[in-house]
Amino acid sequence: MYKENNNFSNLEKAILRVLAFFDIFDYPLTLVEIHKWLYLPDKPYSLYDINQALESDNLTNRISVKKGFYFFAGRESIIKIRLDRYQIAEKKFKIALKTIFWLRWLAFIKMIGICNNAGYNNASSHSDIDFFIVVRKGRLWWSRLLITLVTTFLGIRRHDKKVVDRVCLSFYVADDHLNLTDISLPPTDPYLVYWVATLMPIYDQGVYKNFLQANSWLDLYLPNFYDTTLNSRRQIKDSQYTKFSKGVDRKVLAGTVGNLLEFFAKILQIGRVKKYLGSSLDKNNTNVIVNTSMLKFHKIDRRDYYRSIWQKKLNDLEIV
Predict the structure, then answer these.
(1) CB neighbours of 271 closer than 8 A, spacing ≥ 6?
(2) H/E/C letters for each residue in 160-196?
(3) 62-100 residue pLDDT tens
(4) Integer Cα distance of 188 and 307 in angstroms
(5) pTM of the predicted model over 0.85
(6) Which CATH number describes the domain made up of 10-79+306-317?
(7) What is the end-to-end Cα distance of the chain in Å, rounded?
(8) Residue 77 DSSP one-character state
(9) Which of 60, 100, 113, 240 is the 20 to 30 A CA-CA neighbour of 157?
C-alpha cells in the first residue's frame, strides 16, 4: 500500500510536484519557473523560500542544478533537450506569427493563443502548432469557416498526414464561455492547469485578462502564478486598416445577416465535422465537444495519460 513520506515539508512537496510534471516533457525548470508554477503549496512562497528549500537535504539528494536549470538527479540530459527545443519553437513561432498576421483581418476573432508544448517553448521538431481561438459569441461556426479557408489558402493548416509545422485548429471557444472548468478531468487535471498557465496570447483584443479572470480557479493550484507578458516580437496587433475593416464587417454582419451566415456556416461544416470525429462524438467525455460556445476536436486527448505518469512519479517520490 502507498504510504506518504511525511519528512518532506509542504513547500518541498510542491517543488517536487512541479518538477515531476515538467519532467514528463523533458523540461528542466529555472528558479523563477518553479516559483511561478509551484503546484498546490499550502500558501504562497517567495523566491527566497524556494531557493532555501532547494538547498535542503531532502531535495539536494533528489534534485540537481546546472546552468540555472533544476531537474531530478540523473536527468541532466534534458537541459540540452530544452535548449534545442527553444530553437525549434522559434521557427514555429515565426510560422504562427505569419498565420495570425492574416487571421487578424477576420472580424470576430478576439484572441489567438499558442498552447500545449509550444506555448512554453518546448516544441519538438515533428510537432504541429496548436492554436486556441476565442471568437465573438454567436459567430463560432462562421469564424471557423473563414479561419479554415485562410489557413488552407496559406498552405499552413494541419490535415491528414500533413502535421509538422502546420497549424492545428482544434479548439475554439466563444468569448462568453472562457471558463474551462467544465472540461476539467475529475478529481484534478494537472495538464489543464498548466495548459492555462502556459497559454501564450499572440493576438489579443483584451480577452486574455478576461480569460484568466474566468479561470481564477487556477489560483487554487498555482497561487504564485502571474499572467504572461510577451515581448513585441511575439505579438501581433491590429493596424488602423484591420481595425477599420473589421469595424465595417461587424456592422454589416450584425443582426439577421450575421445570424444567417452563422446558420449556413454550421450547416456547411457540421457534416464534415461529424465524419472526421466519427464515434468520438458519441462518447460522454471532454475530449470532443461540439456546441454553440465551444468546438473541441481532440479525438486523442492525453490528459488522463499524463496525469497517470505524473501520479506514478509522485508515488515513487512518496508524496501526493
Answers:
(1) none
(2) CCECCCCEECCEEEECCCCCCHHHCCCCCCHHHHHHH
(3) 999 999 999 999 999 999 999 999 999 999 999 999 999
(4) 9
(5) yes
(6) 1.10.10
(7) 14
(8) T
(9) 240
Say how far apart CA 289 and CA 284 lie, in whole Å: 9
Angle 78-103/140-153 helices, nearest 10 degrees?
Answer: 110
Span(s) in the chain for CATH 1.10.10: 10-79+306-317
What three-state secondary structure class fits 32? helix
Please report, to the nearest 10 degrees, the dihedral formed by the alpha carbons of residues 163, 165, 166, 169 taken in order.
100
Assign residue 6 a region (left: φ > 0; alpha: ψ between -120 and 50; beta: otherwise).
alpha
The Cα diameter of the chain in Å comes to 68
Q: How far is CA 289 from CA 193, 273, 280, in A?
A: 19, 11, 9
Q: pLDDT tens-digit profile of 207-257?
A: 999 999 999 999 999 999 999 788 888 899 999 999 999 999 999 998 899
CB atoms within 10 A of CB 218: 17
DSSP secondary structure string, 92-155?
A: HHHHHHHHHHHHTTSTTEEEEEE-GGGGGT---TT--EEEEEEE-TT-HHHHHHHHHHHHHHTT
Surface-to-core class of residue 192, CB atoms within 10 Å of its CB (0-12 exposed, 13-18 middle, 19+ buried): buried
Domain 88-302 CATH assignment equals 3.30.460.10: yes
Residue 139 and residue 292: Cα distance in Å, rounded? 9
Give the residue carrying C-alpha cell 495538464: 191
How far is 31 from 29, CA to CA, in rounded Å? 7
Burial class (CB in 10 A: 0-12, 13-18, 19+), 99: buried
Considering the chain, tell me which residue range(s) the CATH 3.30.460.10 domain(s) occupy.
88-302
Note the pLDDT tens digit of each residue in 135-144.
999 999 999 9
CA pair distance 269, 255, nearest whole angstrom: 21
Q: How many CB atoms lie within 10 A of CB 56?
A: 15
Are the C-beta atoms of residues 130 and 170 closer than 8 Å to each other? Answer: yes
